[in-house]
Design goal:
Blueprint (H helix, E strand, L loop, with lengths): L5 H5 L2 H4 L6 E3 L4 H11 L3 E6 L2 E7 H4 L1
Parallel strand pairs: 1-2
Antiparallel strand pairs: 2-3
């Protein structure tokens, strides 16, 4: 990222983030996560272990 780009400096994460957060337990199968992503239309899901975020899974890595 170019730290001198005036557009990036004026865009807040909250302006482009999604409010629809989908999470799954790390024990869920990849097939079920892929279906969940497709069904909900989100770009990624937060992966949890013991209710603590440990990763993110995106549709691109599941195809």
């Amino acid at each position: 990222m170019n730290s001198f780009d005036p557009i990036q400096q004026k865009t807040w994460v909250k302006q482009i983030m999604s409010n629809s957060v989908v999470s799954v337990d790390s024990s869920v199968t990849v097939t079920n996560v892929a279906k969940m992503i497709k069904d909900t239309g989100v770009g990624a899901v937060v992966v949890l272990e013991n209710n603590f975020p440990v990763g993110i899974s995106r549709i691109g890595i599941l195809q």
